[in-house]
Design goal:
This protein has helices spanning 20-31, 52-67, 86-99, 114-126, 137-143, 161-172, 222-232, 248-256, 281-289, 304-310, 314-324, 335-349, 561-565; strands spanning 39-42, 71-76, 107-109, 130-133, 182-185, 200-204, 218-220, 237-241, 265-269, 351-353, 355-356, 359-364, 373-378, 388-393, 396-400, 420-423, 428-436, 443-450, 468-469, 471-473, 478-485, 510-518, 530-533, 537-541, 551-557. By secondary structure, it is of the alpha/beta class. It has a 7-stranded mixed beta sheet. A 7-stranded mixed beta sheet has the order 19-16-17-18-12-15-20, with no helix packed on it. It has a 4-stranded antiparallel beta sheet with strand order 4-5-6-7. The chain binds one RNA strand through α5, β6, α7, α12 and β19.
Length: 567
RNA sequence: UGGGGCGUCGCCAAGUAGGUAAGGCACGGGGUUUUGGUCCCCGCAUUCGUGGGUUCGAGUCCUACCGCCCCAGCCA
């Protein structure tokens, strides 16, 4: 090992990983390329809601700026009015804020640059680097050539700057219908890179823009707009996804040929793929408009609004984005990692409460009728600062139906005929009998006895009990609706292979339990509060909740080693 | 058959003047535990897409293959 490694942190050392982008920034700072400046931007098109894949980009761009003492802009790439809506810009802003990032006073819109963009286009024309083409869309496509054959020049390619200027001004003035003409960059119709075969810069669209109204009837294309917007904002590192690698030469061409105030470096990284879901705007939009899900914030969706409603925390998502890393390799991240990040965060902060999803009645035969004990329950076993509350205990209780088995398998810790278990923080109880439905033979009720000497859940004689069950008092429990979510798709990558991705939708992705029972203290929790139903999972009080009918979304189940062992 | 990228453990991902494969998730085993949760130990790539070559030594250099992704929107 070289001696100069002394100050370098170890691979396991603190701080964010040195992914290749951070290394580029390090190098730029070392060489003084930007004078120490680091300025990034998150540039969504407002044509849909943000999802967990965007979170990766947001964390990267805003995180990078923060780490290097720089800034990150929010910029709406709103150059295609046909697809964009204000509803989306509002939702995007709310989601970025919720994730925990702040663009301060730097929320920009590409549409704010329409005037400058237009002036730059005239300059390109004057320099003989752009021309107006009369060809139809089909002709342009045909003349572009193929991946292996060069394209052929447009008959309009030889027009003089004066002609082009006149035509372009008339395009802008609204003299031509949609599709009649376009402005094209004059680069190289024979380029092996298809992107450089005289790309379209402006198209005519007599469409109202959500911000500029009907001020324009020509709109600039992404390739022309994005690089200039970056330059105008003083961006240093323009980070985008892999599919734009082919566009980078065009990004550079535009900036090289215009008197812009700088030349940002475009850097591409691999976008996120998550198993058992889809992260393509096109597909998400389809699920929403075809009502496969209830809306953009359906808790099964990987949208930020969806997982927020599901009970995911911004902290967990940011942690996830750090853990997956940044690279240029195509990837498919295991959903289990996202769930792990959530559990880790929630385990630390969620109050533990009791709820019974599928009730089975238990009568404590030797417990006095009419007696009620208020048992003090801590809200967290390892963090007393979360406080405690009183939970009523009485002769008639409900336990989880799954916690009783009449003919238990080996290593069964829970209740069974003759078995003794602990009711959490209450008493040891022993099952002494079962009551059945005479018609179906189904067990409808359990008879138990409790050991009064085990109050609080401890036995003084040192006898141990294998299982600890959660419970609610029948007379005091309140009703609640519980929604259990599972993966949206049954296939790891529903987008792969032939066939429609919707063929892989999981029919059991949502299970509603309309009549679960919750301990009384839970009725006072605020919407959005995240709790752990002991032994069942983490839950979040849904916005649909009313005091009369609380609705809980299960954020994620607890790890279940019994389920694993019994497999 | 053109051009641009990428290939390190089941899934992510470190590795960068060539020096003898980090870490996380998942998984398996053990301990603690009033959640079969948490927590704590321990295990988990003789090998870096493949074949050659250079070298005392190669994931890192050379070379030839193979595989996967992206590009022919007046979408972004």
């Amino acid at each position: 090992m070289a001696a100069h490694d002394a100050t370098v942190t170890t691979p396991t050392g603190p701080g964010p990983a040195r992914d290749f982008i951070r290394q580029i920034v390090d190098e730029d700072n070392r060489t003084g390329k930007w004078g120490g400046r680091v300025h990034t931007r998150f540039p969504p098109e407002p044509n849909g809601y943000l999802h967990i894949g965007h979170a990766k980009s947001i964390c990267l761009n805003f995180g990078l700026a923060k780490e290097f003492g720089g800034q990150c802009n929010l910029r709406f790439d709103d150059t295609n009015p046909a697809k964009e809506e204000v509803e989306y810009v509002d939702a995007i802003q709310a989601d970025v804020r919720w994730l925990g990032f702040d663009w301060e006073d730097r929320c920009f819109y590409a549409s704010n640059y329409f005037g400058k963009l237009y002036a730059f286009a005239e300059q390109l024309i004057e320099k003989g680097l752009a021309y107006v083409d009369d060809q139809s869309q089909e002709e342009i496509r045909a003349n572009r050539g193929t991946l292996t054959e060069p394209g052929t020049d447009s008959p309009c390619r030889g027009r003089t700057p004066a002609e082009n200027l006149d035509l372009f001004r008339r395009m802008r003035a609204g003299e031509f219908p949609d599709g009649a003409k376009v402005l094209r960059a004059k680069i190289d119709m024979k380029s092996p890179n298809v992107v450089l075969r005289d790309p379209v810069l402006y198209r005519i669209k007599h469409v109202e823009h959500h911000r500029t109204g009907d001020a324009w009837c020509i709109y600039p294309m992404y390739d022309y707009t994005h690089c200039i917007s970056d330059a105008l904002e003083g961006i240093t590192h323009s980070i985008c996804s892999l599919e734009f690698e082919n566009n980078r030469p065009l990004y550079d061409w535009v900036l090289d040929n215009l008197p812009v105030p700088g030349h940002p470096q475009q850097i591409e990284f691999a976008r996120l793929n998550l198993s058992y879901t889809v992260l393509s705007k096109r597909k998400l939009i389809q699920l929403v408009t075809e009502k496969v899900v209830s809306g953009w914030d359906d808790p099964r969706l990987p949208t930020l609004s969806g997982i927020r409603r599901r009970g995911y925390t911004p902290e967990a998502i940011r942690d996830f984005c750090e853990r997956i890393g940044i690279s240029k390799a195509e990837n498919m991240v295991d959903m289990a990692l996202l769930e792990h990040c959530l559990r880790e965060d929630l385990n630390r902060r969620a109050k533990r409460v009791m709820a019974v999803l599928r009730p089975l009645k238990v009568i404590i035969e030797n417990y006095p009728e009419g007696q009620v004990e208020e048992i003090d329950f801590p809200y967290h076993p390892e963090d007393a600062s979360l406080g405690s509350r009183k939970v009523p205990f009485s002769r008639e209780l409900y336990i989880e139906r799954d916690d009783f088995q009449e003919n238990p398998p080996k290593k069964w810790f829970r209740l069974a005929p003759g078995a003794e278990v602990r009711l959490r923080y209450a008493y040891y109880v022993t099952c002494t009998g079962v009551v059945r439905d005479p018609a179906t033979g189904e067990v409808t009720e359990l008879r138990c006895t409790h050991d009064p000497a085990t109050k609080g859940g401890w036995s003084s004689d040192g006898r141990k009990v294998k299982g600890t069950l959660h419970w609610v008092s029948a007379a005091h429990a309140k009703p609640a609706e519980v929604r259990l979510y599972d993966r949206l798709f049954t296939k790891e990558n529903p987008s792969e292979g032939k066939g429609d991705f919707k063929d892989w939708l999981n029919p059991d992705s949502l299970e509603i339990i309309p009549d679960a029972l919750i301990e009384p203290s839970l009725a006072d929790f605020p919407v959005g509060e995240r709790v752990q139903f002991e032994r069942l999972g983490y839950f979040c009080l849904d916005p649909d909740s009313t005091p009369a009918k609380p609705v809980f979304n299960r954020s994620v189940a607890l790890k279940d080693s019994w389920a694993k062992a019994s497999r």
